[in-house]
């Protein structure tokens, strides 16, 4: 039992730091309303910063770049509308018609030499 005597001096419970409670370290309860207000305020600032960055980005583009991007968006919208206007069934039918028009050259060649 001599080994158990060595552990009698062990301090149980939380650690006590120098200075103790005189340091004045106490936890405060957060007020949710104040936190929400700060959160909304920071979100507003973030949005303003993003808008400013967007304006700053737009200001650096030349007229040709602006026109190019407009044309690209227009073409992309046309592609989307074209794809959306045709159903899958119609697409399959069109593909089958296309395959029917191809010559026999595109068929799988015979492998057998005997026939």
Automatic annotation (TrEMBL):
InterPro entries named among the record's database cross-references: FAM32A (IPR013865)
GO cellular component terms, semicolon-separated: nucleolus
Annotated stretches, region: Disordered: 1-37
Pfam families hit by this protein: FAM32A (PF08555)
UniProt feature, compositional bias: Low complexity: 12-24
Family assignment from sequence similarity: Belongs to the FAM32 family.
The name this protein goes by in its record: Protein FAM32A
Native species: Ovis ammon polii
């Amino acid at each position: 039992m001599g080994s158990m005597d060595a552990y009698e001096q062990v301090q149980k419970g939380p650690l006590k730091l120098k200075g103790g409670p005189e340091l004045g370290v106490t936890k405060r309860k957060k007020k949710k309303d104040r936190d929400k207000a700060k959160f909304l305020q920071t979100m507003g600032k973030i949005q303003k910063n993003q808008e400013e960055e967007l304006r700053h980005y737009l200001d650096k583009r030349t007229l040709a770049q602006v026109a190019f991007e407009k044309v690209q968006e227009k073409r992309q919208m046309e592609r989307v509308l074209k794809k959306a206007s045709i159903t899958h069934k119609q697409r399959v039918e069109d593909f089958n018609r296309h395959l029917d028009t191809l010559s026999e050259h595109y068929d799988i060649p015979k492998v057998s030499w005997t026939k």
